[in-house]
Write a structure and sequence with these properties.
Two copies of one chain form a homodimer. With about 325 residues, chain A is of the alpha/beta class. Chain A has helices at about 5-15, 20-25, 30-45, 50-60, 75-90, 105-110, 130-140, 160-175, 190-205, 225-235, 250-260, 280, 295-310, 330; strands at about 65-70, 95-100, 120-125, 145, 155-160, 180-185, 215-220, 240-245, 270-275, 290, 320, 325. A six-stranded parallel β-sheet of chain A has the order 2-1-3-4-5-11, sandwiched between helices. A six-stranded mixed β-sheet of chain A has the order 7-6-8-9-10-12, with helices on both faces. In chain A, helix 7 (about 130-140) links the parallel strand 3 and strand 4 (about 145). The radius of gyration of chain A is 26 Å and the shape is elongated. The N and C termini of chain A lie far apart (about 60 Å). Chain A binds a DNA duplex (30 and 30 nucleotides) through helix 2 and helix 4. Chains A, B: Keywords: DNA-binding, Transcription, Transcription regulation.
Chain lengths: ~325, ~325
DNA sequence: CACCTTTCTGTAAACGTTTACTGCGATCGC
DNA sequence: GCGATCGCAGTAAACGTTTACAGAAAGGTG
């Protein structure tokens, strides 16, 4: 594991200057004979160019960072799976950051862009405050944010419209005759939490149903916490006939709780989730869910970043992915084959 | 987004040499007055050290790569989740590689270590051949392999003992009185596939049961493919009373198929999987599974690599994580609360 | 054959750090 | 009061590339 060969080693062996070696290796016009000598020397030595030195000179690292709260979350996972091949195809490596949804850590990731170890960053903050926005605009490398930022923020942005998404689900549940539609949300100080809370309240009214705060419960965006919240809700409002869950993990928790409580899904309680994670389709019963286009958002973010890396000066773009309702058994029952 | 300040900028503003700036920033003994001037200049300029330049000089990148087939696989995901914090705590960033289990890509990752963009690599190859072993031993940076490599290979290695794992499950099923134990495996040319195939054949014989090749079916290590394999198996051997699945994804596929076929789990067919992924505990019914310590293997691999990075010359270590049987409802039914 | 192009190669500087070495002024011991 | 010692800071080299520039060799033209 001794020190590998450098262009100097090659230059000596081939009897040429390091400039010639560099030119040959970069395919610049060189005399046939020199090319051959350099290439065979490089080959014999098993030369691999040092990317650090190259980066220092070229000011490009061919690395891109992706920062999310927790890679264990299926939504982020889907995004990583989509982002990775796009970047790879463009010659970039992927550096992963887990921030645990900690604001200080997120800010630190933005600050660390000054270290120039990546050419750009895709970030998906759960909460977006003043500090974020300032740090984003001061960032020393291009940033793409997944999740809605305030209009006018000078940053590339991929969004979805979870308000419309909530309404799609509510209308669907209502169209099935449900009137007592419970809502299980995550923390209200998060971007999706607050948006979905508003959307539920508005949506219920637009359907001509009374807003009943006994039908609303807050937990967290995880299966276990969701399940607990559903338990509380169920004991407070035993007459509910539908559940709108702010994400699919909560909805899966709801399925567990309902099953153990002996309620049939969807006959007694129809359940809808959000995010359309892979598990939604294979859960039992399969889960009706509002797709927020996680895969597409990931892909778009990667493309937006690549575009920006190719053209640093264009105006920031905002791309919105429309939500789509995926109707499955948890609201309409098993289709008869 | 202009070019950020460098130590030269700071040196000018503070009226000192770049050497002094560097010394101050690295906490080397310096006169009180100089320290103050440099620090305030750095502060005003919002200086962030360039990690590329630092890496070039120091020959360390503070990055580590993790290469696996597909981040979507829950087992690898668990490992990433475990590896990341360990590395982060030690000051390393994580670079992710998905190789799609493609041997050429894996070899390429090993070769790319010569680019020196990472200080080390954790790799989990599905198939391990001659080419791998040669590339591993020729690698220009420390490598830790998760998955059994042939004895004597000079590389740090974290293993599990899936043969013992399979036997644990078979003995458990036999102890429940099952005699027609089917086996659904993944491709035989993979390391786990071949190990588990041998283990099943041996295990069955040791239990005094006849080896019936009609009870064995090969698919792939995914839910959908597993489900198909289980369907085939079920039509070929309708009398089976237990299913040993080579991993949990296959087992989840088996649960789907059995449910749709109207077989009760575990009353009619007991099901056991391997890997003990998160989903196993929350599936319905919850899945008996052989834990191969994915989280622990990830953690150990990270620790092994860190140790090696601190001491490049020690002999390669082999660490084995023993399998543990997690008994759940898919074999013994719901425990009465 | 002298001159001008053209083609190729080598020298050297640059990217932003760290660090060995040198030199300077001050302090110490005698 | 003088040499030795010490603390500190500056100069310069190095890490491994890329690339502007200059120079040499070769070819073409009159």
């Amino acid at each position: 594991m001794s020190d590998g060969p450098t262009i100097t080693t090659i230059a000596e062996r081939a009897g040429v200057s390091i400039a010639s070696v560099s030119r040959v290796l970069n395919g610049l016009p060189t005399r046939e004979d020199t090319v051959r000598r350099v290439l065979s020397a490089a080959d014999e030595l098993g030369y691999v160019p040092n990317s650090v030195a190259r980066s220092l000179k070229s000011r490009r690292t061919n690395q891109v960072a992706f920062a999310m709260a927790d890679i264990g979350n299926p939504v982020y996972l889907t995004m990583v799976r989509e982002i990775q091949p796009v970047l790879k195809a463009a010659g970039y490596r992927l550096v992963l950051h887990s921030t645990d949804a900690d604001v200080a850590e997120e800010i630190d990731v933005l600050r660390s862009l000054g270290e120039r170890y990546v050419d750009g960053l895709i970030m998906i903050p759960l909460r977006i405050g003043e500090a974020h926005l300032k740090a984003v605009e001061a960032a020393r490398a291009p940033v793409v944010i997944i999740g809605s930022v305030p209009d006018g923020t000078r940053v590339d942005n991929v969004r979805t419209d979870s308000r419309t998404g909530v309404r799609l689900a509510l209308e669907h549940l209502r169209s099935l005759g449900r009137r007592r539609i419970g809502f299980v949300n995550g923390p209200l100080d998060t971007v999706p939490g607050s948006a979905r809370s508003t959307a539920y309240a508005e949506g219920i009214r637009e359907l001509g149903l009374p807003y009943d705060e006994n039908l609303v419960e807050i937990g967290d965006f995880y299966r276990a916490e969701g399940a607990q919240a559903v338990s509380r809700l169920l004991s407070r409002a035993p007459d509910l006939d539908a559940l709108m869950c702010a994400n699919d993990l909560i909805a899966l928790g709801a399925l567990d709780v309902l099953r153990r409580a002996g309620r049939r899904v969807p006959e007694d309680v129809a359940v809808a989730g959000m995010d359309d994670i892979d598990l939604a389709a294979v859960a039992w019963p399969s889960l009706t869910s509002v797709s927020l286009g996680s895969a597409e958002r990931g892909r778009l973010a990667a493309e937006l970043l690549l575009d920006r890396l190719g053209n640093g000066d264009r105006d920031p773009k905002v791309v919105t992915v429309p939500p789509r309702l995926m109707v499955r058994a948890s609201t309409v029952g098993e289709e008869t084959p």
